[in-house]
Amino acid sequence: MEQKLAIIIKTLTDNGDTLATMESCTGGGLANAITSIEGASEVIKFSAVTYSNEYKIKMGVSQKTIDTYSVYSAVVAQEMSKAISDFANSRYGIGITGKLNRIDKYNLNGDMNTVFVSIYDKIDNKYYPLIVKVNKDSRVKNKEMVINHIIDLLLDIIP
Questions:
Q1: From CA 131, how far away is CA 89, in angstroms rounded?
Q2: I need a surface site. Which of 9, 43, 64, 85 has the fewest CB within 10 A?
Q3: Dist CA 23 CA 115 (whole Å)
């Protein structure tokens, strides 16, 4: 993972590009992984952990979208990615939401053990969606699985 992240950071730095994250179920794990690599301060503009619907909404996700599609949906991940990109004025915004081996009594809708990711590219005005079905027996392993999938997608996206 570290080697792949180093490539991402170098490429973003060389291109003069930045990214920001709005994470829910990964709890800041992606931002932590990125900032563990030397040079990350050149590329990561901002990171928010928005575990609650309240803070997703405060950061720019529409209440109507959450009510219509569930907080655990590709549409919410997409809004998260664009909102964080806009908030931080970064080229790439990454939104992550989903359920990891747990029933959420406040949000009963949405598939269990499914994580929705969206990477938004502000320059191309394009979304890159990703759905990860987690299958590990621990939250830590499921978070790592999701983060690894996001890193692979970033490697495919960043020119």
A1: 25
A2: 64
A3: 11
CB atoms within 10 A of CB 129: 15
Q: Which two tokens stand for residue 124?
A: 């191309």
Other Cβ atoms closer than 10 A to 132: 20
**Domains in the chain: boundaries:** 2-157
Q: CA 81, 117, 14, 36 torsion: positive or negative?
A: positive
Tokens coding 76:
């919410």
pLDDT, tens only, 13-70:
999 999 999 999 999 999 999 999 999 999 999 999 998 999 999 999 999 999 999 8
Element (DSSP H or E) covering residue 49: strand 44-49
* Spatial separation of the C-alpha atoms in residues 119 and 129, rounded to whole Å: 6
Closest CA to 134 of 121, 116, 118: 116
CATH 3.90.1300.10 for domain 2-157 = no
What pLDDT score was predicted for residue 159? 85
Contact 87, 59 (CB under 8 A): yes
Average pLDDT over residues 73-97: 97
Question: Average per-residue pLDDT in the chain?
Answer: 92
